[in-house]
Amino acid sequence: MAFDRLTYEKAEHAIKQRRFSADNRLAERMNEIGTKIPEINQIINTLSQTSIELSKLIIRKETDFSKNFNKIKEQNLHGQAMIKQLLVQNNYPENYLEPIYTCPDCRDKGYINGERCSCFNKLLTRFAVEKLNSEANMPECDFEHFSLDYYKGTSNPNCPDCHRKMTENLAFCKHYAQNFSLKSDSLFILGQTGIGKTHISLSIAKEVSEKGYTVAYGSLLNYLRIIEKEHFGRTTNSENDTLQILIDADLLILDDLGSEFQTNFYESTLYNIINTRINLGLPTIISSNLSAEELQRHYNERIISRLFSVFTTLMFFGDDIRQLKRLRNEF
Ligand SMILES: Nc1ncnc2c1ncn2[C@@H]1O[C@H](COP(=O)(O)OP(=O)(O)OP(=O)(O)O)[C@@H](O)[C@H]1O
Ligand SMILES: [Mg+2]
Ligand SMILES: [Zn+2]
Question: Which option is the CATH number for 137-327: 3.90.220.20, 3.40.50.300, 3.30.360.20, 3.20.20.370?
Answer without folding.
Answer: 3.40.50.300
